[in-house]
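User: For my dataset I need records formatted as: sequence, then structure tokens, nothing else. Please produce one.
Assistant:
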Amino acid sequence: MVVDGRVPRALALSPDGRWIAYVVAPAGRSGDHPISELWVAAADGSEPPRRLTSGESNEAGPRWAADSLTVYFLADRAERGTAQVCRAGLFDGVVETITSWPGGVSAHLPLTDPDLVVVIAASAENDAQVSPHRLRLLDVRSGQLRTPDAFGDRHVVEVVERPGDGMLAVLTWSTPEVDPGLLEPGLHLLDPVSGTAQDLGPAAADASSPVWWPTEDGWHLAYLAKTPPFLVGGRAVLEVAVPVGEHRSVTAGTTVCPIGLVQVDTGPPLVLVADGLDTAIHRLDPAGHHLVEISRIKGHATSLTTNRTGETVAAVVSTSYEPANVHAGPVSGPLTRLTNLRPELGDVRWGVQRRLSYKASDGLDVDGLLILPPGRSGPFPLVTLVHGGPYDRHADRLQLGWDPSGQWLAAAGYAVFLPNPRGSMGHGHDFAVRVAGAVGLEEWTDICAGIDRLIADGVADPDRLGIGGWSHGGFMAAWAVGQTDRFKAAVMGAGISDWEMLAETGEEGRFEAALSGSNGRQSPISYAGEVRTPVLILHGENDTNVPVSQAELFHRALRGYGVEQEYVVYPGEKHAIRGRGHQLDVLRRTRDWFDRWLE
């Protein structure tokens, strides 16, 4: 039920606001290549959702034509693992592949001109994974592709069309490599008719999601990026006047965190923000160049999309006991659920999920979630699950996933604590940047304060405590067992054991260096000799974010000190575990580990 659950993503609302195209895929991948389906739903719920494609390939990135009658998308229908641009008729159901580019296509955008589609792809004669991707213009009538000689050797990442005149804003990296590509983005203008381009200067690090913004003094561009001048501390919305202007933040000083930016052709862009344990829709205010809240969404929302006018929106929403589904409605709310992708969960008796708020040791306000086993009374064995990032959060959504999750453990009799310590998303830049150069320090004491409160409240049995997490959560688990022996078991999933080595070998090295500071004092490997807690170490073989050498190093150190441990490497997996069988193994092995040591 966990790994076969169907999950919606990549929503696209038609320009006329009547239809939502979206992708549905199982959580776990069976076979060598993922399988997904393209669906469409009436935004007003007047018709049941219907499938547009057969589900025999991997579909992604639906984009509507300007007439709202055709959906363009990427799919590997002709050759598995190689995506091409396809299109499907909304009403006739005819699906056709319209490119056959060697190496595949990475992104696309149908333009207002019905005969033109932007195609982003590497050079045909080079490896698509290492060659810079170029912007190309496809004439859908003739099938001809032309490549404007506009950006030199820069790597094209995203493109967006300006309403009215068809001018393109193009986001590029200096190189296809994440580091330094993410650190050296640029914004450009491109006239698709003449092929002439203009450079708008460097953008802030980790720039993404460019959108056009009409204001009283002319056109502006807005985009998401790391909050300048930091490489950690979360994202901001930045804007720049076109063609010349300063790139400046419009979210400075806010206590929310932007997670999505959506163009509105006739007005200011919409901004999806993380706000504590919930989500909200804001609008950029042209008068004051700041955010104005429009509506709130209880729980977790992603993939916000809107129509030309910004009056109708759709998003993927999950709440405490409801899995992710497609919701839509007026931008002022409320949103109505349009899909029921996991009816098999309807009869599950969930653990009781509660919101927590408490004070850290220095008085900082911190939040999180607590899940109690259904139908039982405490005190309970308590497992603390730390999220990744650290710029991420435990939102008040259904906590059911492979990595592992709160409801999975609650069903086995555990109370589960899901903390959002400093460094997390949802409380603004100042809250998030507190971990810069200091991972494992005050964020660790924030977590301890929550555990202490749950013990004092009679929820947790102090003699049966466990801790675990994935990515940064895996780091925190490894860090915890080197700082205290209060935990009887730990799970280190794709975790960091040596920050200095990660800064040299990980694909986001300079971001990792900004988190850890100038030395490795916050590295769990420095405290391996203090570990007495049994540790389960899990890692993907082909992880480029946190290389498997991090797990190997910690495994060897614990073995050398005689610490009880188990070390598992998942063949072919990257940072997130995608294979269905491997996800099942993570779930079962993790719960068995806690059962063994916390009974």
